[in-house]
Amino acid sequence: MASIKIIRGGQTLAWAQGAQEVSLLYEGSYQEDDQILFSSDGEHAVVQVDQQVAPARVYLPRRRFLFRPPLAGDGLVVYPPQAFAGKKHLLFLRPALGNAYRNLARNPVDQRGETDAFPHATANVETRNESVFAARNVIDGQHIAKGHGEWPFGSWGIGTRTDAELTLDFGRTVEIDALALYLRADFPHDAYWIEGTVTLDDGYEQTFPLQKRDGAQRIALGAHRIRTLRLHRLIKCDDPSAFPALRQIEVYGRDIEPICND
């Protein structure tokens, strides 16, 4: 069975279940520390946490996903306006079917901190610890890069750190062969990187050039089976600006095992 629960202080406020897929219309306002619990029969699922947030194809190793809806302030500004607001919230959960070649990195419902839904992005620095510069922004599916700050311009900001690293965890072994980087392009506010390195957890490492431009910069990697990759050794240009940043990372491939939600 698949189910969705709205939980407050250990009590269930709303609940729905279905044989494989389920929708829930929650007619109420969220409060601080409310949680949404998605439970799935399978490990591969598509979830929607709010009608204003794009559905996400996620891997659930525990067949569950606990999402914490942000209500105000710093945590909310990386989501579209009106997300999680008001007294009507439409959520759904269904199996993810098929195993097409795709961007495996995309996850608009990734959250900072511990999570049980993958892919998941983390970093050793996020500018001033603000959500608009958090690692999770680079897998939210948004590519618009001629700005910085609140949605839709969230990015991974590194301040002035020269040792900045970003790690992407797929939660299981996948097969990949290429990636694409979208640098933040809010010039002249932004600087940019002229070089970067990606290290895969199978031991493969590749250094590649980067350019000052808005749009995808694609890097062919050859076929690899990995769970994690690390983006690091980012070399800044000699531009006077101190603020290079990453808007989006895409990683192309497919799951190794057939997708099964029986």
Q: Can you walk me through this structure?
A:
It is a single chain. The protein is 0% helix and 44% strand. The chain is an all-beta fold and 262 residues long. The strands form 3 sheets. Strands 9, 10, 11, 12, 13, 14, 15 and 16 form an 8-stranded antiparallel beta sheet that branches. Strands 2-1-4-7 form a 4-stranded antiparallel beta sheet, with no helix packed on it. It has a 4-stranded antiparallel beta sheet with strand order 3-8-5-6, with no helix packed on it. Strand 1 (2-8) and strand 2 form a beta hairpin. The mean pLDDT is 96.
Which keywords apply here?
mainly beta; 8-stranded antiparallel sheet; 4-stranded antiparallel sheet; 44% strand; 262 residues
What fraction of the residues are assigned to beta strands by DSSP?
35-45%
The computed structural class is: mainly beta
Flag low-confidence runs: none
Largest sheet: 8 strands, antiparallel
Work out the number of β strands.
16
Q: Any idea what the radius of gyration is?
A: 19 Å
